[in-house]
Amino acid sequence: MSKRRSTRRSLLKNVGAGVAGAVVASCRHIREAAPVGAKVVPPSERVTLGHIGTGNMGGGHVGGFLRLKDAQIVALCDPFKSRRDEKAEMVATHYARENNRGSYAACATYNDFRELLARDDIDAVVIATPDHWHVPIAIAAARAGKGMYVEKPLGVSVEQNQALREAIKRHGNVFQYGTQQRSGRNFRFACELARNRRIGKLQTIHVWCARGERGGSTEPIPVPKGSDYDMWPRPAPVAPYTQDRCITGGTARKGAYHIYDYSLGFIAGWGAHPLDIAQWGNDTDTTSPIEYEGTGTIPTEGLFDTITTWDMHCLYANGVRMRFMSNDVAQPFVERYHPKYIDHGTTFVGSEGWVSVDRQGIYADPPSLLESTIGPAEIHLYESRDHRQNFLDCVKSRKATVSPVEAAIRSDTISHLCNIAIRVGRKIAWDPEKEEIVGDEEASRMLTRAMRSPWHL
Amino acid sequence: MSSMRSNLKLFLTIFLWLISVVATAAAANAAPSEPLRLLILSGKNNHNWKATTPALKEIYEDSGRFVVDVTNDPSSCDAGTFARYEVIVSNWSAWPDPDRQWGEETERAFLEFVRNGGGFALFHAASATFDDWSEFQQLIGASYTKGTTGHGRIHAFKVTIVDRDHPVTRGINDFWITDELWHRMGMRPTAHVLATAYSAEHTGGTGNDELAAVCTTFGDGRCFNFVLGHDVAAMRSLGWKMLMLRGTEWAGTGKVTIEKPIDVDAALHATAGYRYGEKRDALAKVEEQVHFVAPKPVLRKKVAAKLAAMLSSDATVDCKKFLCRQLGLIGSGQEVPALARLLENNELSFAARAALERIPGAEAAAALRAVRD
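The joint structure predicted for all components is written out below.
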């Protein structure tokens, strides 16, 4: 239920009947501190943010949103005390400088995200926890009426993703998926070239990303002081704390990214990015491939037990084939045509050429495609200049974001079905209308995952 | 005392063979999705077909590679019958009658079936029949010829693989078997020798290497002829099963995907002491088996029952957590009681619940509800 309080925040009032809206409240501290001058966005027009998960990725988001003038970070949550305290200090210093004050005390820190979500004065949350928490927290955020920026990948089970879709449908929340490549000009242009048939009829898509990690220490060590190691894994099974279990700040190579209790591994965690672009260019944001076949490797020693290398062949109902690979598999294959291959990318191969895009550039054959202009009557894809800014804009306008929840679910599904196909060792058939695996009971059972009490969907 | 021990050991070995489930794993690159349809011709044999035919059916079905029908009246088969199968297997013999008892129509349909690419496999007495049917003799390549072929007493002997490059025998080791070894079989030039066995004189043999398995091609079809397999005991030999399975698959398709069998019992036993943090190779072997049997109802039930039984053994907690996870994938109502018993166990209750949540059906639902109440 929404509570409307201050008329100052009328920009953030609900539009649209019957939809639980963002909660509006006044923010006294900011109002008092607002200096005279045109550059600062008045508090009444700022989106108040809470960050849930302030570790590796989450910390980056805190820094990123601090730089945006129409965001105001008021709360941080992380079960690791050092991570939330560190970032709280970063926030305090930043706003203090902005407000020309020596200190700034309005950023609260929490161990338990439920307390953060209960605050009426928070418009939106950024969820940058390990994967196993993404959906449970997002659903709670949906029920609390918050807008949400959710890091990729989506849920640790397809069932969780479907539950999130229901919650967002019911509560009407603004949702931005952390696939920030969609806010990159090259990525949008590559997809527009594909959609407008500059490469002829799209036939195959090559998708590749960094492979998963092996190793990781299984040696139990004491939990860092002040950290809640009952909260951290909560919906997932409990296991002894080790130095590589929870991500340590700054390095993406360790930690929960590669542990199956918390994640599918890089086949989802990194794969989400190039797969999302593949879906965008193939115009399949509301569906997923219907066949999945291939192989992968899973390590049998060390802490990390997700798929490390893989080679998957997928088939869309529209006839397009997709080969989704880890970078070690992709390299000899992609290098045959790609002069500047790097460890991730998406290539659209059509009947009259190809276009490939990654975070370093865009490449095509014939190269003249890159000079192409998309005409006014042609297909133009959603233009977003900055992923976080797009999120804030949509929290205010309630328009759809560039990476909406349906696109998130349908691309995350690809990672899930690849993971299942590799583990059961069989070709998997998928019905995208019913969202069911066809004719394989064991594989279908893998679409769900139990959650440790008291957590449930 | 020591002879009692070795007798006991022998007994245990045979006992273990008798109770082990032989689950054969498909080759990594070529996992076929559709099983081969197979018809066993049975109903007459001077050997104990009433026991050997069901034993053979079980061997084929346990591999997961075949679905099996049996007819006890081959003469009732016609072209329409054979058209429903990829491979025909004979455990039928008229011995000692030389008569051709299938009837012209069946004979013609049978030969056409093989010529057109169908597979034929036969073992032991099934090659001791139809002396006067020259096409049949051509097809099977070697036979028990009246007046010439003989055999010594049943004894243990070694089968030697002669062609190590043929798809049927590639990667198969020599093996021992207790069986009836024939000598001086009639052999056609069409026969290609896959395996032989030394026929020791003191067992009533010839002192020579004698035929154990041959194969032929016939038109577009293939035939695998296994000399060995006098009774159910001989058929329990792992080596016998592997050759018969692979020979039959080759006859039906020209290719072999059936690999060395993994003993599920041994694989499970290797996980019993698992502790978190140790290497997971033994677990991975069991997981592979679980995924392999998941689409094969007969095998799946057997393996699920073994997983459930192991929950009440003295395996480690970490092993049992692993077993619960596997039961979540292939368990059914039958395994619910073993899982339900763990719901009150502090260390295993989540693992058991997670498995029960995935198992469909009323029993699992009831077990979960019972905990809440």
